[in-house]
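Please predict the structure of the following assembly.
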Amino acid sequence: MPDPSYAIRLIDSTDRVNRLKLRSEDGALAAFLKRQCKHFHDQNLAKTYVYIDENTPAPRKVLGYVSIVVGEINNADAIVPELPEYGFSYPAVKIARLAVELDLQRSGLGGNLVDYSLAVVKRHIAPNVGCRFVVVDANRPAVDFYRKHGFVLVDTEENRKREHPLMFYDLLKVA
Amino acid sequence: MIKSKTFGGVVLSGEDAGKFERQVRYGRVNAKAQNALNRGDELLRQFGERKLGDDVTDSSPRKIA
């Protein structure tokens, strides 16, 4: 077997989505990939980028994936001096799902999927559609992981106590 | 308060809304954010530009019969 040659690309209809090994507590991530991911992708409900090994024959096993979706941050109580009459809502993209094969975790693949998603949003979505933030409902143990990729925790006691604390990445503060 | 849907929007109110606005308005430029984007740009160059472009749009001129 040749050495793996990892690549990131949009999910393909032939990709094998039913073999991703995860911890038992991450069953929802495996179930989404297996049962819903391609449907969401085809219907433009969310787009999924996958890690595959190009040195394996097709159909290729998905080794990791990230699903991103259009969303918004509706700040109901915000007062924006420039737009006092405007119910303010920031366009955002959400990282809805992120998972990497158990044996490949801590090898940088998950971080690469996040970085790749940030570049897709910054270079392709924000300039053409308008988008201010990338947001994620982080698993609490993953907060430091997202911090390393530039995400900021909404720093309130209530958010810190949430099972999935909200974190944001401000696209206006990167070039 | 924060209400967040897995595949959708986020609604902020109260203390969370105010804190978020202050963090956005007064937060420092984040070197980790820029480094992550730089790595993402490199990954886009390595893996993604052609396939991504194929999926989103093709702006090359076409002759219309």
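Strands of chain B lie at 2-4, 10-12. The longest strand of chain B covers residues 2-4.
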